[in-house]
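Ticket reopened. Same input as before:
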Amino acid sequence: MIDVSAFNDALGIMFTSVGSWGWIVPGLIVGLVFSAIPGISITMAMAIVLPMSLYMDFFSAIVFLTSVYTGAGFGGSVPAILMNIPGSPSSFATTFDGYAMSQKGEHNEALGYALFASTLCGIAGYVLLLLVIEPLADIVLRIGPVEMFAVAIWGMMLLGSLGSTYISRGLLAAALGILLGTVGMNTAGFTRGTLGLPVLLDGIAPIPAMIGLLAASQLLSLASRDYIIEAEGSREVSLRKILKGCWGTLKYPGVLLRGSIIGIIIGAVPGVGSSIGNLIAYAETKRTAKDSATFGKGNPKGVIAAESAVASGEGGSMATMLALGIPGGGATAILIAAFMMHNIVPGPSFIETQKPMVYAIILNNIVQAVVLLAVGIGFIYVASNIMKVRTRYVLPAILVIATLGTFAVTGEAAGPITLFVFALLGYALNRYQYPVSAVVVGILLGRMLETEFLRSYQLSGGNPLYILERPGAMAIFAVMFASLAMTAWGKRKQNRAEAAEALAMRQIQEETRAAHTTPSKG
Amino acid sequence: MTDFTRRDAFKISAGGLAAVSGMVAMPSILRAATYPSRPINVIVPFATGGYNDRLSRAFMPYLEQELGQPLVIVNKPGAGTQLGNSYALNQPADGYSILCTSAAPYIPLTVLLQNAPYKVEDFSMINLPSRDYTLAATSSGGPVKTFAEVIEKLKKDPSSLSIGVQPASADYANMVLAFQAAGVDASKLRIVTYDGGGPARNATAGAQVDVGFVGGEGFLPLKSKVRPLAIFAAEQVDWYPDAPLIGATLKTDFVEGSQRGWAVTTKLKNEQPEIFKILVAAVEKASKNPKAIETLKLQELATTWYGPDASNKAYLDNAAKMAKYVDLLK
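Engineering reply: fixed in the latest deploy. New output:
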């Protein structure tokens, strides 16, 4: 629990280093802009600014980098909502309902929902972190391969919510995605499907592949229109509507809470990162919602669920980093490097000896989330103007930027080539009505599924009863099946109710018909 | 009017041409005299934030001071350093590209296991200050107390303890060698593979696996969460003095862990010996700079000066041992 005297010291650090607060706004803007560019992930945005932070003092550097992190967590949702192209993998689930909303002319509201969910859950994540950082860190270390496999399976269940015309094509597309996700050298040192190319030894780079798959199909379908939104009246950018969306978020505390819990736990697990939390949060919210049929067609709850998991995952990831010195994902790996470059080694001893500093960092992140609200509104106000630009100018610009983004990171042609190959694949899949998003889910989860399954097998020596020794994994599976069963039961009840309603309607109709016919007789 | 004729113009341009071609064909000594005249790229075949990246960035100001030119860090991660190594070999041998890398065991491993299109000898070391060793460790709360206990348990029942290790690594070779020496039936072991030292360490500290075989240096931030059982080094390791040496429990051959530091292509060393000398002198001076030593120590980075000969020998020895035990790695 919280250490009060350390907390007071932390407030002291916060207020004596007010100068470093000046880095919050630039950091947020850098994060927002970079992550809004398709092809540049949060990790890359941070890698780009890391060398800059070397010239700052420690607290300023950390404030700057964590601000980039906070901003980047939200920035990806802007292109996801406006153009159906996620800025980074963690905003993939935001596209499902965010883009549908913006097609209905509700892009202002959708961005508002995303921003408020992002800030609220970002704050929630860090407040929780302040209270439970140490116990959380210990729990995280106990999460083993079987538990992780259960999480990956849970993520795969999202496929059921994606909805496509043909179930068989959906499954086939997912299988293709998983296969693509396992290309390269696996955890046991075996190499598959690299075509002899050394670049593929680490697997297919997920970001260019994802952008290629999603952007190609999306841009081609947009190319036939004059503007991203057809109806001229809906293209407006309205601060009032953005704020309405922000305010509307508060109507769904349940969705926010569920998203935050899923986000924090999954974000805290080393090596999983936020790209999976949003998928699970979305799938769970959809499954448990009464109006699940409207998900994917512009239900604000879908946007809120996805964004809340991304934002709170940041807090979870920071917990693992501060308490154990273990990166939860790529972004925190960069943060650790920044710590080390300022002669501070995060980990158990850091948290024991420098608790005020840890609290100060967490408090500063809460401040950042609040500032993000203001900066974010400004950012989406400016970014939304893309709706007013003709697609013939927007599309080439996006293609060029995305290609450059995938190239810039390593300075290798591998990124753009991956983008191109997957763009062709995306076009073909779309042409024959295979769900592209199922392939993306497969690519994002394929490696984790395989790795954790293989490790579970190695650890258990092939004995399936090993799961009985892992109460955590059993709990995850139990919750998952309970959730499934409840949904199925709820659906059945709903179907019955609908059938009864239909019956009643028919009866009423018959009665009225009878009533109509009776007088005519007389 | 000047008497500037076409003939003069021809003479001048011919002279210019001669001068240019002279520059191109300039003997290496002359080129070395002006070296370095522009910024030097430091190729790090790992992502931002790893050990080599941090080492290069921390050491950069001190090396810049000696060379009188700025350094530019170029991260080329991927394929277990193969991409970065190939990139380095493709650069002109003019001294404007140097490497900061975990030379051993990554270069030998890419050659032995990934059929990388280069030889171990294509790289020459300047200095490899950081030496890591495989550490066998268990979670600090775990039931196993010593390495002898591990051996005893595994001899009775090879599946009684689970083991976490990175495949195709020096750690893996050491694990197999130790169990062979102890007479443990390796085919029945429960080996859990991790694709990196970090995940293997987390699994060890979190008691996901009973014993982990991983590079010891990375354990330092997690020191309070693990119990060291045996370190695969010949003599006590100064950064982990409480780790018992493997030799104390078991007589076995072993491979040294990662050797990280500064390297160039052998082509540069052979074709531009003067430039190589300048680089060696600069790295030596910077490594011995008390301020550099102090700063890097705070970041848990090494600055020890072994020099090119000793470093090269350590690197080639490691490569030879890796080649010897390559069958264990496959």
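Chain A has a mean pLDDT of 84. The radius of gyration of chain A is 24 Å. Please confirm and we'll close it.
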